[in-house]
Specification:
Largest sheet: 9 strands, antiparallel
Strand content: 15-25%
Domain PH: 278-390, 396-498
Distance between the termini: 61 Å
Number of helices: 11
Radius of gyration: 27 Å
Pfam families: PH_FT_C, PH_FT_N
Number of domains: 3
């Protein structure tokens, strides 16, 4: 479980650069975090401290941004009925600022080899935005003025001190710079070095106007455009899991009775849980759980080629982590939550590791299928429990064998009892990977069209518009696509193939009559 007292970590100096506490402990509350003002030379940062500085500095300022946005919302509610558009925009941009800071911290855990590239830029940005947030705090805490006049003084004074840059535009500038930093950190193809440089100059000018000392001169050279080129070949062969959550959902079926997500640990600080330097990130869910309070990173180790689940939580203002391999976990469903269980050797029983709540049925299904595929195909998995192979709350409407991209698969139609959602599910028919998911597809409103499903022979059915989510590296869905529109063809192989195709079509299009086939087409294979 989480220790009572966290170890030494780093924070940000509110007047200058990123700093280390030395013998002081990390702040244990957001309020205490706002009072940290120690100092440290950036050139002393080495190894893991790069990640710790970035993570804690961003997290502390994100906490500050949340508090400031909350107080500005209270100030807005206390003002007259006038719209106050500048106040509203400032408040929303500060909220976005907190989100971007946390997002950058999340990505730093994954792209930690790139963290040194962004540290110089963070040292330029963080003291400046921190000063802006503290200045706002000082203005709205001025009890000598009415709330209306506090806002007026805040807006005009902070606009004037920035050389005419309006207060909302100041935070738009900060957020733009953070977005560029995220693109730089993640090697985004959208990153533009010239835009970064011009934005950096603007922030340096703002620092100078506010009397913030320039950051210390680095002994190492500043970043060069030619240093931004990719130095890894990991993206040359994209893993199937990297595509799953990047595809748009064809439908979003809300799950009712939402519960809080939770991580039960045990948890450790970041410097005690190290992702291997050659880790390949498969996907990240940083915004999905408890409004960013819990995030999930799934990565593949190059050493054993096995996927690992890394959960991050915040405890007393500091990030804590828990790590488990897919082979070490079991999965179960509880309403809108997927529950992941670990084995406790000391207690001799299974213990809840994490319970993750999903907003939509589709996302829950995709996460479940990913996990089952990870576990079944994992060389470290000793045994797959029967409970792992069944998603609780789903009812099997149909099952038959199909030939799919040259392989023998089972095709199942599931209905979710909670949402009444229907999906197609293909899994390996037999062998060592039996019941391992190959793909799933959600049946959407498109199925209401009489042209959506067509039986073209006694063994074959075509679906006019269906999006597959594939959980197998070797599967090629284009081999099943037909015609210029790319209709997806399903070929049944059971001895009762004719009955199976008719039953399958009637199930998904029960109101239509089977007029799409002639007597000649029925006799074709």
């Amino acid at each position: 479980m989480i220790p009572q007292e966290p170890p030494d970590i780093t924070c940000i100096n509110l007047t200058g650069s990123l700093e280390e506490h030395g013998k002081n402990r990390a702040p244990t509350t957001p309020e205490a975090a706002l009072e940290v003002t120690n100092s440290f030379d950036m050139e002393m940062v080495r190894g893991v401290q790069h990640e710790l500085h970035l993570l804690q500095g961003c997290c502390l300022e994100a906490e500050r941004a949340d508090i400031v946005a909350f107080h500005l919302a209270g100030l807005r509610n206390a003002l007259s009925e006038a719209p106050h558009p500048h106040l509203v925009v400032t408040m929303e941009e500060i909220r976005m600022l907190g989100q971007l800071l946390r997002e950058l911290a999340e990505y730093s855990q994954v792209h930690f080899s790139r963290v040194p590239v962004v540290l110089d830029y963070l040292e330029i940005l963080l003291p400046c935005l921190s000063r802006s947030l503290r200045d706002i705090t000082n203005h709205y805490e001025d009890r000598t003025l009415t709330k209306e006049n506090r806002w007026r003084k805040m807006y005009h004074a902070m606009t004037q001190e920035a050389g005419g840059l309006q207060l909302p535009q100041r935070f738009i500038l900060y957020n733009h710079f953070l977005t560029l930093l995220r693109e730089l950190l993640t090697r985004s193809p959208n990153f533009d070095f010239n835009t970064m440089e011009s934005t950096r100059i603007q922030i340096m000018q703002l620092r100078e106007a506010r009397g913030i000392p320039p950051p210390p001169i680095r002994l190492t050279p500043t970043i060069r455009p030619d240093a931004l080129e990719d130095d890894t070949d990991l993206t040359s062969n994209i893993h199937w899991a990297e595509k799953i959550f990047s595809l748009p959902l064809p439908s979003r079926t809300a799950l009712k009775h939402q519960q809080l997500s939770k991580s039960c640990g045990p948890h450790l600080p970041w410097n005690q849980i190290r992702m291997p330097s050659d880790a390949r990130v498969l996907f990240m869910r940083t915004r999905s759980f408890n409004e960013r309070q819990i995030s999930l990173i799934v990565y593949q180790s190059a050493r054993d080629r096995c996927p690992y689940f890394l959960i991050r939580i915040y405890h007393m203002g500091s990030p804590w982590f828990s790590l488990r391999g897919a082979h070490e976990l079991c999965v179960d469903r509880d309403g809108s939550n997927l529950q992941f269980w670990r084995w406790s050797p000391s207690e001799g029983c299974a213990r809840l590791w994490a319970s993750l709540c999903f907003m939509t049925w589709e996302e829950l299904v995709l996460m479940y299928c990913c996990f089952v595929s990870f576990k079944i195909r994992n060389s470290l998995t000793l045994q797959v429990a029967n409970e792992d192979l069944t998603l609780r709350g789903e009812y099997k409407l149909f099952q038959a064998r199909i030939v799919d991209d040259g392989f023998m698969h089972s095709l199942i139609v599931y209905e979710d009892l909670m949402t009444k959602g229907i999906r197609l599910h293909a899994a390996i028919w037999d062998g060592d990977f039996r019941q391992c998911p190959v793909w799933t597809a959600f049946v959407t409103h498109q199925s209401a069209s009489t042209k959506w499903i067509k039986r073209i022979s006694k063994k074959r059915v075509r679906l006019a518009d269906v999006q597959l989510y594939v959980f197998c590296q070797d599967y090629r869905q284009q081999n099943q696509r037909r015609g210029s529109a790319g209709a997806f063809e399903i070929c049944f192989v059971s001895e009762e193939a004719y009955a199976a195709t008719k039953r399958f079509k009637d199930l998904l299009s029960p109101s239509s009559t089977d007029t799409s086939m002639t007597t000649d087409s029925i006799t074709q294979s």
